[in-house]
TrEMBL record, chain A:
InterPro entries: Ribosomal_uL13 (IPR005822), Ribosomal_uL13_bac-type (IPR005823), Ribosomal_uL13_sf (IPR036899). GO terms for cellular component: mitochondrial large ribosomal subunit. This is 39S ribosomal protein L13, mitochondrial. It comes from the Eukaryota. The keyword Ribonucleoprotein applies. Belongs to the universal ribosomal protein uL13 family. GO terms for biological process: negative regulation of translation; translation. Keywords: Ribonucleoprotein, Ribosomal protein. GO terms for molecular function: mRNA binding; structural constituent of ribosome.
UniProtKB/TrEMBL annotation, chain B:
Its main location: mitochondrion. GO terms for cellular component: mitochondrial large ribosomal subunit. It comes from the Eukaryota. This is Large ribosomal subunit protein mL43. One of its GO terms (molecular function) is structural constituent of ribosome. Pfam families: L51_S25_CI-B8 (PF05047). It comes from Arctia plantaginis (Wood tiger moth). Belongs to the mitochondrion-specific ribosomal protein mL43 family. It is found in: Mitochondrion. Residues 37-110 form the Ribosomal protein/NADH dehydrogenase domain. Keywords: Mitochondrion, Ribonucleoprotein, Ribosomal protein. InterPro entries: Ribosomal_mL43, Ribosomal_mL43/mS25/NADH_DH, Thioredoxin-like_sf. One of its GO terms (biological process) is mitochondrial translation. SMART domains: L51_S25_CI-B8.
Length: 178, 187
């Protein structure tokens, strides 16, 4: 293999580091997106036998959004292996204990259960807030688009912008706002 | 399990040394016809030898033909090729016409191609003119200087326009049109 070909090989199989912002995202929906990047399925060179998976850094995993009343209804099962060792943890309890666990389990479940899955999971980094260690952040060169729009709170919009926003009608002067 | 553990060897469609582009070199070097002089299973083979073998040898001087009579054994054709392949073919109870066709197949093929699993049905020495794909092809160059994470590259940009946004745009348009009307009246 000539020097030029060798460099071509490095370039084609180079690992890219992606960052994904979990803020207000459905973990089970975004797991399907993250999975593709972890396994390399977004690349035209993808093949199950070649090692072309990328690294994904998830941030803000504390601020994920579950659908409906799933925080109260969804249970995570664990069994210690001893008799009577079964336990069911509700999603809100699990999220209080470890805010990275729900997104981790969602990505793990989204992938097919084979020998490669645990190695692919090693390429997933999850942080519950926006602060990521410097040595990880310096590798990041790409961002994965979210699936849902992050809503903006009214008190986070500058006051001037709110005042200029078109109004359908004005409240009467004697109207008492709660 | 991966493909290397399969019994069949894998390969690509190849023509040895661009055979036939300038001149054609017959890849079959030697053919041995084994048959029995008395058994019925060699009937077709004996017919071929009586009627066609001399013509075959005359037309294809590059191919060495051997005959090997052997008592009470089924007829067999063995071809040997330039690349070292050896093809063994049983022609028991085959008719004269069938054997003529099979010998033609052996003569025109370029090795033991039947025992190769083709990985692809096409082959090229120059797979890409533009160069192979890398993670950096088709990337937005703005990403090079962007401060990640940013909402510009992270937000979903494929959603349809919201009703609120549509209303706001209609309002902006209305403001512009009223302004122009005022101007017209002034004129």
């Amino acid at each position: 293999m000539s020097a030029a070909k060798r460099v071509q090989q490095w370039a084609t199989f180079a690992r890219t580091w992606h960052i994904f912002d979990c803020k207000w995202q459905d973990p089970y929906e975004s797991a399907n997106i993250i999975k593709k990047y972890l396994m390399g399925q977004h690349k035209p060179i993808y093949h199950p036998l070649n090692d072309c998976g990328d690294v994904v850094v998830c941030i803000n995993s504390r601020e994920i959004a579950l659908r409906g009343d799933e925080w109260r209804k969804r249970a995570y099962f664990h069994h210690t292996g001893y008799p009577g060792g079964a336990s069911w943890t509700l999603a809100w309890e699990l999220h209080n204990k470890d805010p990275t666990m729900i997104i981790k389990k969602a990505v793990y479940r989204a992938m097919k259960g084979n020998l490669q899955r645990r190695h692919t999971m090693q390429r997933l980094f999850i942080y519950h807030e926006e602060n990521v260690p410097e040595d990880i952040m310096k590798n990041v060169s790409s961002q994965i688009r979210q699936s849902r729009l992050v809503p903006t709170r009214l008190d986070h919009i500058p006051e001037e912008e709110v005042k200029q926003y078109p109004k359908v009608m004005d409240y009467p002067k004697d109207y008492v706002l709660k | 399990m991966s493909a290397k553990n399969l019994f069949l060897n894998s390969g690509f469609v190849r023509a040895p040394l661009q055979n036939g582009v300038g001149r054609y070199v017959c890849q079959l070097q030697r053919i041995v016809l084994k048959f029995c002089k008395s058994h019925g299973g060699s009937r077709g083979m004996r017919d071929f030898i009586e009627q066609d073998l001399v013509d075959f040898a005359k037309h294809h001087p590059g191919v060495v033909v051997y005959l090997k009579p052997r008592r009470h054994r089924s007829p067999v054709i063995v071809g040997e090729y330039l690349n070292g392949d050896r093809v063994w073919m049983n022609v028991h109870n085959k008719t004269h016409e069938e054997i003529t066709k099979w010998i033609e197949v052996l003569r025109t093929q370029q090795g033991d191609i039947a025992s190769v699993r083709l990985r692809k049905y096409q082959y090229t020495d120059h797979p890409s003119i533009q160069g192979p794909w890398t993670p950096f092809t088709f990337k937005d160059p703005e990403l090079n200087t962007a401060e990640l994470p940013s909402s510009k590259f992270g937000a979903n940009n494929r959603l349809p326009m919201s009703a609120t946004e549509q209303l706001r745009l209609m309002f902006e348009k209305q403001k512009i049109s009223t302004k122009t009307e005022d101007l017209k009246i002034a004129e």
